[in-house]
Amino acid sequence: MTEKPEFISRRSFLAILGLCISALIGGLSFLKFRRGISGKILGPNREIGHRIRENSKSELSSNTNRKVSEKVKVLILGSGVSGLSAGYYLQKAGFSEFQILELEEYAGGNSRSGQNRIGPFPWGAHYLPQPGEEAVLVRKFLEENKIIVGKDHRGKPVYDERFLCFDPEERIFYQGRWNEGLYPGGNSQSPAGIEEQKFKKWIQTWRLKIGRDGKKAFSIPIDLSSQDPEILKLDNIPFFEYIKEQGFRSKELFWFLDYSVRDDFGGSMDTVSAWIGLHYFCSRPVDENGEDLTLLTWPQGNGFLVEKLRAPILPKIRTGTLVEKVTNSNSKNSRFEVQIYSVETKEQKIIPCDSIVYALPSFTRKYVLGEKNGIAEGLTYSPWLVANLSVDQVPTGKGIPPCWDNVIYQSPSLGYIVSTHQDLRAGREESVLTYYQAFGDKDTVSIRKKMMRTSWSDWKNAILFDLKKAHPDIERRIRNIDIMTYAHAMIRPTPGLIWGGKRERLAISYPHLHFAHSDLSGISIFEEALVRGNNAAMRILGEQKI
Questions:
Q1: pLDDT tens digits for 46-103?
Q2: Structural domain contains residue 421
Q3: Which residue in 105, 48, 92, 97 sits closest to 70, CA to CA?
Q4: Which of 35, 151, 214, 284 has the greatest number of CB atoms lying within 10 Å of its CB?
């Protein structure tokens, strides 16, 4: 007789989630003995970044006290993927009278990467799903950069095989051993396995669904999705509640779905909408069996794509530069004055310009632009932690061998990826493991405060405690742990955000000032950021009559 799956209640789900988060950032002071692991906390320059809040309360310094730089026709504020995309497409169109201003030392935002003597590794986004037919711009970009190298007899893209994730791709530590894939279902006849098959069949009906307007229910770019009200109303319901209403019951399935939305959106099932939860599973192409297509990945993660955007416009990027304020100019020679602060010289300057691409997160608008309409209020940004662990050997464990993506069931983390997985050199033992943690609960303010207080030693202990469940000997394998914390890593698609009207209002340009950040899409993915940057660039080119 088949065992009835255990039902997971909302209260139990949130209790488990709370315990996981407490375990990770609680310090774990009882883990005191550590052998020679070095490391440090890196991350966005919060002290300098917080200057924008202070300066929003004061007026620009007087003309006699401020230095004025040479005028730049177009300023792009921010060098995440959307800002780089704007510059890339301006340059591609033959327009070069622009600069990109960036606070951090390196461009790339949450797609940046790093390198040590072992090799490159990601500091954020680490893969790109194969784009579907609707993602025309993304496919074209991949063609331009020799990632798509041709088409097959059906007209489908052919990718450079070096950039397709090598097998084995994914494993999960479940019931004391490593198992293939990321679903913790055991065999297909177990209650969890049966529910997995039920979920896959249900999802397939959504993948094939066409709205009353003739559009696919879920697409990337997100704005190409169907506007059928019957589908859009799912944006007002938490994903957790909707899945429960469909009769799904197993704790393994609920864990898997929660893991999935934390991985892409930084929020738990209880904090993101049902529409976006379905979008995660239905918006990208699958094979004839309904299985995900092989991911595109690189040792440095999406830092590889960042470099393709950055290289043609490198001289245009000005790092170590905080954008403090944007005001209308009183001069006949420019439309705007942008007040900046140099991290290196500690000087404030004014850069006159005629047009702006605003590729900074929307929550900064009230400080930098002085918006008083509250348009960006109520947005939620998910905090993240990323740690890069230099190891003398990739950890193995019971079950299947190491994969590119390695996840521990019921862990507070999202697991780790192996940066050397795509390395074609045989016999390499040393590697860098990139460990991810998305803090998915509702109270992001408290999480940020805890992040600020947590020491490198406590982060290290928490990471070791988590990984030792699957790798009891992991500590002796690690030589260094560098940690990066992102207080506002990505926009979170909370119920009502995607189709409640706020995104559309945030995206409306001011005269000669155009918004480009990926948070205008409600999700932080490469595809959306590339499109947002391109859209802003096209508006600039229209103004310049190019």
A1: 777 678 877 655 554 444 467 899 999 999 999 999 999 999 999 999 999 999 999 9
A2: no
A3: 97
A4: 284
